[in-house]
């Protein structure tokens, strides 16, 4: 850490020491640093940044405050100490708060720190906030009520809040939450008139009880991009259809990801019924033999149960649906049946894009390897196999949609 900070201090000093005219004001400066108030590097960086801000030569600061430890190795008291370091840094160099446009924090516990005042009262220009492995104390509720905030993007990664209550964030456009610990709904919305993108990613553990997506989305009505990623585990949402219509009214792109390869896909038609304005439907099937029934997985996650939703579909069509993407495609009966059902329901569908999941796995060679396939089927790579799949999909169906096999 000391070597990294020494190099950063030298580089920053050299860069900021260059004479600048009014026409060469820095519009955005990105700096990633470690905080250790016991050495002089943090102070040197703070002084350098404060000087250039006070001189009016920097308009926007993108600051990443890192931590040496990776979760879950970081203990509670160390997270509290990290918060004290961050608070001490901003207290010593308050000019940074005025100039801050993006902030990323790692391993910070807000229990003894008034994070709301710092982020939403002091940081007048803050537009993007990313928190990694942060909390405000065990099972804490984080309530955000900031009518004057400029925050447009909020990202949470493995944060331990029991719930995030966004009472008022009028400028918020995008929310991304990857992995929560709440047993029930982790999120609620109040006044978020600008919210357009919502991404929810989590593997349901044994403690997850699930929730109604319609209740979580209550308070939103203009979302155009929605991502739900189950990361190969059971669904953490309860069966719904008509209840979602209000929240799905403006939806244009829907991504349902991380569906275990042995699960049926028919239940996803409930989303098409609730969102007639969707133009792109993105489905991703999850297949990792290394984690299918490993001992480590079975300790944390429950048995996977195939989703069963009682669907009452009417005869209406999805007239705006233009493209169906299915990543992790396997020529399985449930996938073929699902694609045919979408073709019948979407008369204006232009493309069905079938892709192999090429995302690398660090633990096995399961992706694209028939020896590791959980189903005994792999992505069709030669033209003969692709033609056979094409025929199965389109047999007896009148559709102008093009079946495209991609990588």
Automatic annotation (TrEMBL):
Q: Which SUPFAM superfamilies match?
A: RNI-like
Q: What is this protein called?
A: At1g61320/AtMIF1 LRR domain-containing protein
Q: Which segments constitute the At1g61320/AtMIF1 LRR domain?
A: 95-357
């Amino acid at each position: 850490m000391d070597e990294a900070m020494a190099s950063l201090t030298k580089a920053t000093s050299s860069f900021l020491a260059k004479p600048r005219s009014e026409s060469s004001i820095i519009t955005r400066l990105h700096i990633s640093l470690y905080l250790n108030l016991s050495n002089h590097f943090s102070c040197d960086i703070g002084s350098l940044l404060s000087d250039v801000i006070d001189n009016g030569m920097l308009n926007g600061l993108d600051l990443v405050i890192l931590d040496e430890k990776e979760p879950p190795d970081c203990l509670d008291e160390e997270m509290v100490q990290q918060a004290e370091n961050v608070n001490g840094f901003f207290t010593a160099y308050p000019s940074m708060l005025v100039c801050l446009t993006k902030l990323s924090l790692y391993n910070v516990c807000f229990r003894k720190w008034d994070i709301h005042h710092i982020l939403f009262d002091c940081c007048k220009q803050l537009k993007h906030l990313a928190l990694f492995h942060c909390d405000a104390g065990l099972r804490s509720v984080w309530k955000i009520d900031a009518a004057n905030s400029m925050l447009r993007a909020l990202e949470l990664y493995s944060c331990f809040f029991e719930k995030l209550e966004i009472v008022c964030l009028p400028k918020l456009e995008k929310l991304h939450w990857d992995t929560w610990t709440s047993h029930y709904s982790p999120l609620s919305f109040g006044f978020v008139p600008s919210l357009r993108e919502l991404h929810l990613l989590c593997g349901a553990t044994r403690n997850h009880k699930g929730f109604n997506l319609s209740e979580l989305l209550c308070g939103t009505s203009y979302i155009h991009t929605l991502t739900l990623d189950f990361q190969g585990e059971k669904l953490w949402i309860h069966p719904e259809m008509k209840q979602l219509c209000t929240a799905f009214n403006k939806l244009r792109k829907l991504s349902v990801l991380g569906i275990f390869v042995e699960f049926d896909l028919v239940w996803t038609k409930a989303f098409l019924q609730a969102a007639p304005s969707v133009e792109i439907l993105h489905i991703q099937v999850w297949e990792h033999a290394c984690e299918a029934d490993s001992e480590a997985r079975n300790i944390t996650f429950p048995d996977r149960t195939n989703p069963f939703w009682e669907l009452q579909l009417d005869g209406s069509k999805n007239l705006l649906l233009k493209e169906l993407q299915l990543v992790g495609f396997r020529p399985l009966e449930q996938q073929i049946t699902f694609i045919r059902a979408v073709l019948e329901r979407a008369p204006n569908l232009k493309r069905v894009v079938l892709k192999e999941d090429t995302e690398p796995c660090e633990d096995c060679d399961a992706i694209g390897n028939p020896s590791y396939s959980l189903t005994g089927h792999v992505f069709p790579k030669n033209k003969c196999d692709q033609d056979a799949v094409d025929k199965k999909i389109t047999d007896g169906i009148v559709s102008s949609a093009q079946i495209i096999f991609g990588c």
